[in-house]
Design brief:
mainly alpha, Rhopdopsin 7-helix transmembrane proteins, 9 helices, about 0% strand, transmembrane, GPCR_Rhodpsn_7TM, G protein-coupled ADP receptor activity
Length: about 325
């Protein structure tokens, strides 16, 4: 048993050297990250390929979805390093720069996903509640690409300090890669960590809830039978609202609740070791939920985009017919 990387109190404020028992990380995280890698990598690659093949008829929602898939793909490419790290009992042999890069990619993917899902939700809200308004139609795809550029700039600026705080250190006679910050920088990390949670999660979550509340209110207040096309748009909007809300509740909410609580306890003086260990375990235990957004995002894409759902089926039918002709 030894100090856990990133979970101990600051050296200058801890009354004792806490010894944490967190073997569950080495049992839980490697298989979870392996599932995310095996499922998320091909799913996001397929999303990118299908959107790229339809680039001449891209909608603004497809532009946001493409950038969302790119963020997920970048993160899944970093997972083999984390799988090896936790399978080796927190042994990080890949160097300090790679440690910083992997931690940056995790938070960039996390908050990039949140912001792009918010953009998709806002676009859907405008399309349903203001279908005839011209003020949100100007610019088309060009405006969507501009918004994506702003989102990437915000995400990079917001998450870049994670690459400053995250670093390698020596514990248990081998090198570890700190997730949040080294123990002695816990109190310095606290203001940044809270800012990251508020700006990168809480504000977008509130905006998303406001969009879906207005959207639900708009759909409920509409009277009379709707045209088939309008009815399909309403159903699509309702499906997207349910799925995006589920992604937020499953992937993002538990992680940010436990992370915020852990940051608060971690930065306080004279917290007992069992209390600190309990909050650290809760935070570490919800990290897989945050990683699963790289799998849930492409599922959201296929669930809400009918034309893209049909294409894999059409391709499979064509291949099957070709094989049957050749066999005959």
């Amino acid at each position: 048993m030894a100090w856990d990387n990133g979970t101990a109190q600051a050296m200058d404020s801890a009354p004792t050297r806490c010894v944490f028992r967190e073997n569950f990380k080495n049992l839980l995280l490697p298989p979870v990250y392996s599932v995310v890698l095996v499922a998320g990598l091909p799913l996001n690659a397929c999303v990118i390929a299908q959107i790229f093949m339809s680039r001449r008829a891209l909608t603004r929602t497809a532009v946001y979805t493409l950038n969302l898939a790119l963020a997920d793909l970048l993160y899944t490419c970093s997972l083999p390093l984390l799988i090896y790290n936790y399978a080796s009992a927190d042994n990080w042999p890949f160097g300090d720069f790679t440690c910083r890069l992997v931690r940056f990619l995790f938070y960039a993917n996390l908050h990039g996903s949140i912001l792009f899902l918010t953009c998709i939700s806002f676009q859907r809200y405008l399309g349903i509640c203001y279908p005839l308004a011209l003020w949100h139609k100007h610019g088309g795809r060009r405006a969507a690409w501009l918004v994506c550029g702003v989102v990437w700039l915000v995400v990079t600026t917001l998450c870049l300090p994670t690459a400053v705080f995250a670093t390698t250190g020596s514990q248990r006679n081998h090198t570890v890669c700190y997730d949040l910050s080294p123990p002695h920088l816990a109190s310095h990390y606290m203001p940044y960590g809270m800012t990251l949670t508020v700006v990168g999660f809480l504000l977008p979550f509130i905006a998303l809830l406001a969009c879906y509340w207005r959207l639900a209110r708009h759909l409920c207040l509409q009277d009379g039978p709707a045209e088939p096309v309008a009815q399909e748009r309403r159903s699509k909007a309702a499906r997207m609202a349910v799925v995006v809300a589920a992604v937020f509740v499953i992937s993002f909410l538990p992680f940010h609740i436990t992370k915020t609580a852990y940051l608060g306890v971690r930065s306080r003086h004279h917290v007992s070791c069992p209390v600190l260990e309990a909050f650290a375990a809760a935070y570490k235990g919800t990290r897989p939920f945050a990683s699963f957004n790289s799998v849930l995002d492409p599922i959201l894409f296929y669930f809400t985009q009918k034309k893209f759902r049909q294409r894999p089926k059409e391709l499979l039918q064509k291949l099957t017919a070709k094989w049957q002709r050749q066999g005959g």
